[in-house]
Amino acid sequence: MHTVTFSAAAPYIIEQDYAAYTAEQHAVWTELVGRCMPELEKHAAREYLDGFEIIGLERDRLPNLAAISARLGPRTGWSSTPVSGFLPAPAFFEMLSMRAFPTTTWLRSRDSLEYTPEPDIFHDVFGHVPMHAHKVFAGFLEHYGRFCAAKEDAAAIEKLGRLFWYTVEFGVIRQNSEIKVYGSGLISSHGECLNVCSGNCAIHDFKLDEVLDTPVKVDELHKLLFAVSSFDQIFDAMHETERRAMQGRL
Ligand SMILES: [Fe+2]
Predict the structure, then answer these.
(1) Residue 88 belongs to a domain with what CATH number?
(2) Ligand 1: distance of its center to the CA of 123 in Å?
């Protein structure tokens, strides 16, 4: 059971009413998983695929967040905590710093399978949560939240947002000389995943300076992403970003 006490995030915490999901919603979940999985089995990082099994995700039923958290907690201390929707930055960072991943409970409808302007449970759980079973990634994400929660400088927060975007949301990793996806925006979007896996997106080796200088674009498929060679690299990038911020060099 999750017993942490939130302050900034408190107004956004809700219960997941699992019994209220309809057969149609479970069917939409099944279809979403079915659209993405064939690509992911070939092109997702093995840590993502391992995480999918570890947290007990099912292909034909919406996830019960309490059950996911019960499997994840003993492994990395993370939970998948239900929230009412998009969170303001202080609430979002607070939750990350407490290893509680803000997770929406609504599901897109059948007529918007490919895209939703705001995250839904498919993006949040299918896209994000399997990686939280990976100890290094899990530590990085908490550290990120803790650092950002203490920052007020808007320019620094924007740079930190790019670090998040090009790792947690749209990260790729080189494994056995192949590009594998692990970012939630690639995992949970059939189109974004295909764009990368079919070679339509340039991939540069992950260099912190270039990542921090590359603005985020949300209205088109990515033309450039950054490949790490191990997950330790994102943790190192976090530490370096932090050092620069402390020295006023961000
Ligand atoms: Fe996301």
Answers:
(1) 1.10.800.10
(2) 6
Q: Of 242, 175, 238, 232, which Cα lies nearest the Cα of 203? A: 175
The conformational region for residue 177 under phi > 0 = left, psi -120 to 50 = alpha, else beta, is left
Tokens of 21: 């999901």
161-173 residue pLDDT tens:
999 999 999 999 9
The pTM (predicted TM-score) of the whole model is 0.96
Alpha carbon distance 21, 30 (integer Å)? 13
Spatial CB neighbours of 77, under 8 Å, sequence gap ≥ 6: 99, 138
For the chain, what is the domain count? 1
Would you say residue 91 lies in a domain? Answer: yes
d(CA 129, CA 111): 25
Q: Angle between the 135-149 and 89-97 helix axes, to the nearest 10 degrees?
A: 140
Does the active-site annotation cover 188? yes
Q: How far is the CA of 124 from the centre of ligand 1 (A)?
A: 6
From the list 154, 168, 171, the residue with the least C-alpha distance to 250 is: 154
Q: Does 4 have pLDDT greater than 80?
A: no
Lowest-confidence pick of 37-51, 110-124, 131-145: 110-124
